[in-house]
């Protein structure tokens, strides 16, 4: 199983000095060793826990999604201090592990996030109002994988095909960034690009390693999307 690490410190001074980062790296490294996880990438954010703008988090989630990896953080407070932060993890579909509380997962972290932020900023009434407004607009709430979703899927295969195509296009668009980076580092041939994608821990569309023919199809699809 592959893992992507995410670290966060609150100030630029902490980022420059490494204060707090070494402890986080040590906790993540020990957890990966205990769980038999292979750490393929690390991302560090220098940002307050109250700020929702997390470009490094977005990149960590993107890499974890493409590689089929689990996101690993050192401490639960890297996740639960801000509800938007933790809910973005839940909605991304990426599984994660907190070294200081391994029992927390993306199915339970949303509850903890809302509770913690409510205690700090008293936002419970705003949350209820937002949900009520969404329901009034006709937004369907609840489990998207429930019976209603299954009934909609049974109406025909066309919607399913469109959804799969959109997902494939989105993945190709995301991979375009990695292809550009590999080319900037000197990867020119299909074989070089395949080797680079495998080195990043990114799986091929059907799982497993990349091969030149698969990279060629990827490049053709990227070109079609950008054309």
Could you explain how this protein is built, in words?
It is a single chain. The chain is an alpha/beta fold and 227 residues long. The protein has two domains: 2-125, Resolvase, N-terminal catalytic domain (Rossmann fold, 3-Layer(aba) Sandwich); 156-226. Helices cover 59% and strands 11% of the residues. It contains eleven helices and four strands; from the N terminus they run βααβαβααβαααααα. The chain has helices spanning 12-17, 21-35, 55-67, 77-80, 83-92, 109-121, 124-136, 147-153, 158-184, 190-199, 212-226, and strands at 2-9, 38-46, 70-73, 96-98. The protein has a four-stranded parallel sheet with strand order 2-1-3-4, sandwiched between helices. It is globular and about 55 Å long.
Question: What is the compact description of this entry?
Answer:
It is built from eleven helices and four strands, in the order βααβαβααβαααααα. Helix 5 runs antiparallel to helix 6, helix 9 packs across helix 11 and helix 10 packs across helix 11.
Entry keywords:
Rossmann fold; 2 domains; alpha/beta; 11 helices; 227 residues; four-stranded parallel sheet; globular; 59% helix
